[in-house]
Each structure stands twice: as C-alpha cells, then as structure tokens.
Predict the structure.
Amino acid sequence: MAFDGMMMSLIRRELLAVLSGARVTQVYQPARDELVFSFRTFDKTKKLLIRLSDAPRVHLTVSEIENPKVPPMMCMLLRKRLCGARLEDIEQPENERILLFRFDAVNEIGDREALTLAVEIMGRYSNAILLDPDQNVIESVRRIDFSESQERVLLPKMPYELPPKQEKLYLASCPADEIARRIKEAGADDRAALSVIQGVSPIIAREIIYRAEQAADFDKELTEQIHQLQQIEKTGEGQPTTVFKADGSPMDMSFLSVTQYEGALETRAYDSISQMLDDFYAQRDRRARIKAKTADLTRILKTATERLSRKLNLQRADLKKCADREELRIKGDLLQANLYRIQKGESRITVENFYDENGAELTISLNPAISPAQNAQRYYKEYNKAKTREKKLTEQIALAEEELLYIESVSDALSRAEGEQELSQIRSELSEQGYIKAQKGRRMKEKPLPPLTYQSKNGFVILVGRNNRQNDLLTLKTANKNDIWLHTKNIPGSHVIICSNGREVPDTTLEEAARLAAAHSKARESSQVPVDYTAVKNVSKPQGAKPGRVIYVNYRTVYVKPLLN
C-alpha cells in the first residue's frame, strides 16, 4: 500500500483545484504524527489530513477526528504562524513524495511573509517542516540532529534541504521508449519497472507489466503503458481504484484501473484520489478498532476452546478405557463358575474361558486377602463402575462438544462484527452464558439490532442473522413457517431466511441465499461450501439448547461459492 510519487502528483492537482486561494481557519494535532488543517474555501470548509506514521499520507478528509484537550507545542506554533494564511501554491519536486505548501501569511507586527510547509511522505522518515521566507527551518514534527544524520539535519534556523534523489528515471523528462528499454534490460518484470521508474509503487509496476504480457507485442505494449503513465502524470486524469480481499477488507490501492487479478478480487473505482484514500483508511482503521475492541473476547473464547479441547481429550481417553468393561464381567462370571477350584490365598487362577469359541484358557488375577466369592464380586463391581462411567462420560463428551460448537459460533460472529452494537450484543450473550462477568450497575436496555437485509434478483427479501441471539429471533420469531431457512452444513454461521410471502422460491434466489449463508459463516473463504435449506416449519430449538442452536429435518443440501461484498 505504498503512497507513491505518482499518487502524490495526482493528490497535488486535486488539492490545488480545491484549496488554491483558501485560508487556514484552524490547525489540529490529534496525535504526535498527525496534523489536520481546516481551510475556508469559496463554498465550504475543507479538512486536509497529514499523517506521518502508520500508513503516511496526505489528502482531503471528511472523517471526524478527535482532538486532545491541550494542543501540543507544534500545533500551537502552526496556529500562530499559519491561521489566516492564504494557500498560494503547492509544489512537488520531480515526482518525489514531497509537497511544498506555499502560504501568504501575516506575522505578529502585520507584515506579510511567505511561509512553506514541507510535507515529506517517506515511510518511517515522514515529516512535516515549517519553513521561513529564507527556507530555513522554523520547526518540524520530527527533529533530526547530527547524531541521527550527518547529511541532512532538520533543526530550527538550519537551512532546509530536499532529501537525496533516487537513481531512477523521471516520467516527465524521459521518452517512453527509453524507459521501456531500461526496464527490459533490468529484467522485463515488475521488479525491473519498480527499480527504473521514479514514483511508482509495486501495484503499478505489476499492472503495467501484466498489461504488456497480455498483448501480442510485449515491447510495443510496454512502451504504450509507460506513455499512458506519462499522460496521467501530465493531466492528472487517472482512475483511483481500491482492491479488496476475499473477506471484503481493503488490500491495496492504485491510481490506475486494476486488471492483474483477473476478476479473482473485487475492485472499486472512485471519483478522486482523496475519496479513495479516505474510504480505504477509514475501512482499515474501523476494522483495526473493532479488532482491538474484540481482543479481550477473542482471548476469552480462545482460552475456553483450549480448556474444552483438553477436557475432551482426557474424557475420550478415559472412555476408551471403559471399552474393556466386558472383560471385567467375563472374569467375574468365570470366577463365579469356578469358586470350588479356588483356594483362599491364591494370587491367580487359570480357567477355561467358555465365552471363547475355541475354549482358550484365561488367567485371572486374584486378591489373596479376600475370599474367592469376594474376588468375583470385585470384578462385577469394577464392571458396573466402568459401565456407569461410560454412560456419564458419553453424556459429558456430548455436552462439551456442543459447547465447543457454540464457542465456535460466537467466535465466527465476533470475526464478522462490524460495529459497537454488534459487539455489545455478543458481550451480553457471553455474559448470560457465564463466560464473562456481567457489568455492575444499571445498564440501559439495548436497542434491538435488525438483521442484515438483502434483495435477490427476483425481488425476494433475504434476511441474515448477525449473531446467535439474532439467529434465534430471526428463525423462531420473525420468519413465517413457509419461508425458507438456510445454514451452512455442520459449520458455524448465520441463519438465513428467504421471505417467500406465499410465493414459490426460484432456484436462482435459493442459490443467492445459499451463497450469502456461506459468506456469513466460518467457511467464507472456501471455494465450495455445503449449505442446507428447508422450510422454517421444519426447524425447531431443543429445550435448554444454547443460543443459535437448532435442529431441522426434511432438508436438502447445495454446494456454493460464498457471495462476498
């Protein structure tokens, strides 16, 4: 997800078109490595985000960002020097990931002065530096002294120097055929393109090589693709595009339309680079926040799963031992039949096993301290204990396996949760089931969260449960008995309902609903997922069953590919 020089070039054009002549009305510093400038334009206020860590970038944003109560020193300085300043120009040195924001400001005594904010988007070396009219450093977000660098120092009153240039070809000043020739000499692959062209990221390098490889004449098409990059750099008319993973999370972004995945991954086009960046990182950050907030629940469920798995392994091993209980009964019978032959004080006796087809002999251990009859009763007693233990273990194993399936279903719902309300419902469910402690004090009654709603191509409404509690409500309360119920076969996932409204449900709608059921399950990343379906009237909930647990009869199974957003 590199924020490359070409992307910076397109951002520069967008910012100039929107912010040229605008005045700075406020400056915020939500975090040490984050700045937000508020600009008053002719029609409305615009916010410029400058992020210097964790995916460094610069673009317009509509996101609401929380600010600290006490502004940091750098923020106070920027407010003092730039509030009320007019943005005159934005420069970019030769496709470098640097933007120079030129401001016309007024100093404390009322004199006009030209100030520059240099924004360098360079990975972990990203920085924002305020420069005076003589291009000397006033202050920077990150100071760099002589102990960190002998070549480039960023300290107050020191002259500002651009970072060293890379040994690559600049698109605007080099012919397309020359760049293509250099790429072929370097290996004619995406790594070669990345090493030759100034200002392109890996996804762009892969894309131009992929397009060239699809053409009949690789050399000619490669030159054409480079020429198109030159035109985009010249005109700023690209196609902002985001690539999404199979689970719907954003994976990469480009200023070109992306064809290299050949339809295997979803892509989405945007009207502007800022819109793409804002949406990309909003989705990524939202998922990161949800992941952080679910960390404690994930840990609790993981611990419960490990505990249950260990318990099951011990119980199954114990149950295996109980399988030998018939041998205990046989020994008791044989001793009972041979009491007259046993002398008190013997430690063993060999008798004919009349249970064996061949009448083989069997040696039986005895306790010499008790009578022969008591030895026989000892074996009967051990047999009955093993029989009782087997029954109890079978019941306990069944309960543990059911609990393990329940925990898997909660983990699956947790992995698909997309908001605070969904997390709250899962927490409440786990509290009711005794996995976490209930919060003290009076809690406000939770507002019911509606199921996910889709519409098939044939106009049928399809409802999808978000979690176990909602699955129960959807299947047992909301759905009509003649609606169609779907669920992944023996795989944790959501209950899905096709609202038939008395109509016959066509196969195309059944397939769409089955694909949604697969997508909202633990098997959402599989290629072929079995999904059972039946009428709602064939679904029931066993007495005392955990949330989301149902049984069903008269069903059919289809195999589908998950339908992901």
Remarks:
- The chain has a mean pLDDT of 87.
- The chain has 13 helices and 22 strands.
- The CA atoms of residues 292 and 431 lie 19 Å apart.
- The longest strand covers residues 23-31.
